[in-house]
Amino acid sequence: MNGGETTSNNDTIKKRKIDPESRQIIVPPRDAQIHYTPLKTGLCYDVRMRYHAKIFTSYFEYIDPHPEDPRRIYRIYKILAENGLIKDPTLSGIDDIGDLMLKIPVREATSEEILEVHSKEHLDFIESTSKMNREQLLKATESGDSVYFNSDSYASAKLPVGGAIEACKAVVEGRVKNALAVVRPPGHHAEPEAAGGFCLFSNVAIAAKNILKNYPESVRKILILDWDIHHGNGTQKAFYDDDRILYVSLHRFKMGKYYPGTIHGRYDQTGEGKGEGFNCNITWPVGGVGDAEYMWAFEQIVMPMGREFQPDLVIISAGFDAADGDTIGQCHVTPSCYGHMTHMLKSLARGNMAVVLEGGYNLDSIAISALSVAKILIGEPPDELPDVTRDPKPEVIEMIDKVLRIQSKYWKCFKSKFGNAGCDFQEQINNSIATKNFPLQSAIRQQQVRNLSKEFNFSELPIYKSELPEDTILCSSNIYESNTIIICVHDTPEIWAKRDAIQGTIDPSSSIIVDSSLDMIKWAIERKYGVIDINIPQNLLEQENYYSIITAQEVLINLWDNYLKYFPNVNKIAFVGIGDAYSGIVHLLGHRDTRSVVKAVINFVGQKQLKPLVPLVDESLGEWYFKNSLVFSNKNHIYWGDKENKKPRKKYGRVLRCDTDGISNIMEERFEEATDFILDSFEEWSDSE
Amino acid sequence: MNGGETTSNNDTIKKRKIDPESRQIIVPPRDAQIHYTPLKTGLCYDVRMRYHAKIFTSYFEYIDPHPEDPRRIYRIYKILAENGLIKDPTLSGIDDIGDLMLKIPVREATSEEILEVHSKEHLDFIESTSKMNREQLLKATESGDSVYFNSDSYASAKLPVGGAIEACKAVVEGRVKNALAVVRPPGHHAEPEAAGGFCLFSNVAIAAKNILKNYPESVRKILILDWDIHHGNGTQKAFYDDDRILYVSLHRFKMGKYYPGTIHGRYDQTGEGKGEGFNCNITWPVGGVGDAEYMWAFEQIVMPMGREFQPDLVIISAGFDAADGDTIGQCHVTPSCYGHMTHMLKSLARGNMAVVLEGGYNLDSIAISALSVAKILIGEPPDELPDVTRDPKPEVIEMIDKVLRIQSKYWKCFKSKFGNAGCDFQEQINNSIATKNFPLQSAIRQQQVRNLSKEFNFSELPIYKSELPEDTILCSSNIYESNTIIICVHDTPEIWAKRDAIQGTIDPSSSIIVDSSLDMIKWAIERKYGVIDINIPQNLLEQENYYSIITAQEVLINLWDNYLKYFPNVNKIAFVGIGDAYSGIVHLLGHRDTRSVVKAVINFVGQKQLKPLVPLVDESLGEWYFKNSLVFSNKNHIYWGDKENKKPRKKYGRVLRCDTDGISNIMEERFEEATDFILDSFEEWSDSE
What we know:
- Chain A is an alpha/beta fold.
- Helices cover about 35% and strands about 15% of the residues of chain A.
- Chain A has 2 domains: about 40-420, Histone deacetylase domain (Arginase, Chain A), CATH 3.40.800; about 440-689, Rossmann fold, CATH 3.40.50.
- In chain A, strand 7, helix 11 and strand 8 form a beta-alpha-beta unit.
- In chain A, helix 3 (about 70-80) crosses helix 12 (about 365-380) and helix 7 (about 155-170) crosses helix 8 (about 205-215).
C-alpha cells in the first residue's frame, strides 16, 4: 500500500536488519565507526613572562604603573578559570587545565628563530640588557621608543615569541583546533631593526615566518589580522614585500598623529614588489569607534578579502586596546564584538587560527574581551551585540570606501562588486583632459544658465578672473535698480542617480539634477528682489576642496569690491550659501564691513566643514555674524560628534542641527525658517503672512 | 629589582600561594568552580515519517520515484552516523546517539497546535485522507497542487510539525545548544488554507507560532531564514502582517514562472500592516546560482538585517534543493557554503538556532549538505569554499541592489549605509517634473551639442516628431555634399562618478562624462566623411528601456525616409550604434532595403540585450547583415551565459565577445577593429595604411 522503497510495517527495518535502500541484510559495523572527536583549544600562558617590568624610579610610577603591566596576562588567565574554560584553582599555571583547553608549554625562542625577522644588531642589543646594571637599564629605557627594560627583559621577551610559535605549530599540526596565546610583552611594533611601543621582538611575525619555513606544504599563505588599536608597523615591515602573508590592520591613524604615527600605517600603503596588494590598512580617522565600525569593516573588507586570499592559517594580533574602557585607545569595542570578529575569522582556513595577545591596557577590559574570544575558540556562538542601532561614523564609512577603492586594484571581490569605475576612476579623471571626457559640472552649470535665462531673463555678470568660466555669476535683469538683493552662492548642484550595480557607472537617463538653489531664487523673484546666482566650480584634479573654497572667497570679495559697493539703490542684502561655496560669504563678512547693507546670512552647510568668521575689520563682527545668521548642518555632521547638546562657538554663526542629512533634504526642511529669517531681517515679515 | 606588583623569584607565587594582586594567601576554591559544560546539538529523526509516500500507479513511478522520497531523511541520518556525529550502528533511530548530539523525541502535533496556523477546513481535509480508500486518495492527489496522499499521510505529517516544535523548544529551554530536525514531509509551501508543493502542514510556521505563544518572555522575535530554492509561500503568508517574525527567503523567481510562481515571492513583497518591513524576498532572476551569490546575499542583506532585528531564535527552513546536483533546483550551492551560511547565522540570537529540513531531492546532495550544516551546529568551523574566484552573476548583483533599495525603507543598516538617495530615489524621480529637479540627460546632450557645433560646426537636423528634443539629430556641415557618411546612433553617454559614501548622491565636481562616440566622430571628420550624430533620450519614468528602443526605431526610419533616401551624392553609409539606441539601426535594416548604400554596421552593445534583425523586406537580409556587421558585447554579457564557445545565431549579426565590460571600455578595445572594418567595406582600407 505504501509507496517508494519503504515499507509500512513498523519496526520492520529494525527487526530484520534490512537496509531500506539496498534491501540487503545489514551487517553491523565491526566497531563503532570512526568516531568524531572534537579537538581542544590550545592555551599558552607562563608566569615567567611577568618578570619583564618597568623599574620604578618614583613613587608616582608605583601608584600609576606603566600600562604594559605584568598583570595583563594574569588577569586574562584568571578570568578563563573563573568562567570554567580552564581548571586551575590556584591560578598557578598548571599543565592539566581540563576538558576544553589544552596547555601548550611556552619556551624561549632560539636566536635562530628571532633572526628570521630581526637583525643581529637588534638581537644583540636586547640580549645585552640582561647584563646591564640599573643605571644602564634606565638609560636604555629612556633612549628607546616607548619601551622599558629590566634585567629579565631579554629572557621574558623570548617567551612570547616561543609561545606564539608553539601556539601556531599546535594548530598547524592538528594537535588543537585553534589556540590562544596569552603572552607579553607584545610584539607588533617591534621592527626588524628596533624595539618600540612596548614591544621587544615581533612575536607574531617571527611565528608566521617560522610556520612558512617549517610547513611549506601545508601552510603556504597566512592571514595576519591585527585589531590592536595601533598600527602593527613591525609586522607590516616584516612582510611588506611578501605575498605569502596578507597583513590586515584596523587602527587609529588620525592623519599620522596616533602612535606609531608614520605614513606606513596609512590606508594607501598596500605593499611593494611581490607583496603589492597584500597589505591592507583600515584606518580610523577619528577616535571613539566601536562595534558598528568594526562590523562594517569586517563585512565589507576583511571577510571577502580573507576568503579570496584563502589562507591556510589565520593569526590574530589581538590587542584589546580598542576595547571599551581602554583610556589609551579611547574606543568602544565590546566583548561581544570581539567574539563576532573571531567567529567570522573562524570561517577562514578551516578554522585554523591562533590568537596572540598584543596591547590592551585596561585590566578589566582585556580580561572580558579575551574571555569572549576564548569562548568562540572553544566553539560557542558569540553573544549579541549590545547596540545594533548605531550607524558607523560617516568618516569611517568614507574611509572604508577609500580602502575598498584602493584595494579593488588587487582583489577581485571588490573590483567586480564595486564596479570598474571604482579602481580606474583616478585614471579616467586624469584622462579628462583627453578629448572624449569632459567634466559633468560644466554641463550642469550650463543647464542652470539655460533655465535661469529662459525663465527669468538672467544674464551673465562679467567677472575679472580669466580662469573662471564666464557663466560663474548670473544676475536678474532688475539687479541695478533693486534695493533688495538675494545673493545665492552655491556648489554645483548634486545629482541623484542610480548607479549601475555592476559597472559602477551612472546612467544619465535615470539621473536627475537636484538644483536646490532654484527654490530660493524663485522665492526671491516672486518678491521682485534682485537676484545674483553664483556657481563655484571645483577642481577635478584636486582631492580636497581648497580650490573651491579659495575660489569662493576671491569671487565674493571681487563681487563686493567691483559691484555691490557701487550699486546705487541697494540697502538690503541677504546671502544664501550652499555647500563649500558658503566659505566665500564668511570670508567676505570678515574682510569687509558689509553691515550697512547685509541684513541676513543663511548657510546650508550640509556635511561640509564649518567655517569660522575671522573678524579682520572689527572685533564686533563675530557677535554681529552670530546674531544675523543661520547655519544649517546635517544631522550627522562631524561637528556634533556623539554629544547631544553641543553648543557651537559664536564664530561659526548660529549653527543649527537639522533633523536630516543632505543639502537638498535640509534645504527642504528649513526653507521656511530660512526665508522667514530673511524677511524678519528685512522687516518685511508681516508682508509674508 | 623588578617592578610592578610581580616578584622575580621563580615559582614564588606557586609555593606561597599568594595572590599576586591582593598579596593575600590564596584559599583554594571549595570545589572546582562552576565548570563550563558545552551543550549538545539536538537531533529530531523518526522512521515513522517515512510512511507518507506516493502510491504507485505505474511501473514508471517505481523506477523513477517521486522526488519527495521517504529515503530523504534516512540518507541524512545515515551520513551523520557514518561521520561519527551520532552513534547508531544499525541506523534504526535509537535514543542514545553519543556525546555530540542529543536525540529529541518526535511526537505528533496536536490539532490545537496545527490550528494556530491552519484553518479547521484544512486540518479536517488532511485528517480525512486517513480514512480514504485508494481511489479517493488518488483523486485527492490528482486534484491537489503538487501533493500526494496515502493513508499514513495524516499521521506522518503531524510528526514533522511535532518534531519542529520540539526541536525549537529544546533550544529555547536550553536543553541543547541548537537543533537539527531531519523531518518530512516538508512544510513551507503549506498555506493556512491549503496544502501544496509536497507540503501538508506548515511545520516551521506552526513551530514558530508555538514558541511565541509559550515563551512570551524569552522569545519575542524569531528570524526564519528560508534557503530552500523555492519561495516559502506558506510561511510568508502565516506571518505577513506579523512584526514578531522576520521571514527572509532566498529563492528562484524567474519572473514568477518558478514554483510556486505567484507574485507573493517577488522582491517587492515586504509585508503588510504591522508586518510591513518584516518580509524579505531575495529572488534569483536566473538559475545556476551558487556560493558566490549566496555569500553575497548573506553579507550584504541577511546578516546586517538579522543583527538589526535581534531575534531571540533563528529557524532555518533548510531545503537543500539549491545544492549542487539537484536537478529540480538547478543551482550549485556547495556543502561548504551551507556550512558558511549556518556559521554566519549562528552569530545571531546567541546561537539559539533550529534547522528544519524542507525540500532537496538529490539524495547524495542533501546528505552531504546536511552533514556540513550539522558539523557547524556541533561547533566545527566551516570548510573552505571550493571556488572563491567566481563573481556573483551580474543579474544577481543587480537584484541584491534592488532588494537593498526596497528594504532600506525599513532597515537602518541599509538606509544609512547605502544612502538616502537609495530609498527616496523613485520619489525624487517622480518629483522631477517638479521645478527644482531636471533630468541629467538633457544637460549632457546640450554639452555634446556645444562641443560638436563649436569644434566641428555641426548643426541640428530637424526631425518631425514634436515630442523629441530639437537637439536629437546633429549633422556636419558637409552632409549634403558627402558621398560617404558615418551615422552614429547612441544613448546619452555614461558618467564616471564618485558616489558619496554616506548620502549616495553624486558629486558632479568630481564626475566626468565619458563620451565614447566622440572618438568615432573625430575619426570620420578627419577622413572628411559626412557625419550624422543621433542621441536617443530615455524616459525617466519608465523602468524599462522600451521607450528609447521605440524612439530609436522611429527616428531611424524617419531619417531614412525623409533624408538619406534623397541625399544626391551618398553611395556609402556606415552605421555605428552604441547602447540601446542600436536597436534603431537593426530595425531600419530589416524594414527598408538599404543595401545599395549601407556598407557596414558596427554596434557596441555592451550589456544591453541583443536585437535580432527581422527581415521584412527580403529573406536574404539576415545573411547580408551577418556579413556586413560587427556586434561587440560585454565579456560578461548575459548572452554568453556560462558557455565558453557559444556561437550566436546569424540574425544577431556577427556578435563578438570583448575582453572587457562597459561601453567605453569595449569601444576603446575594439576601435581599430571597427574602423578597419568600415574602411574595408568602403574599399578604402589601403588608404588607412
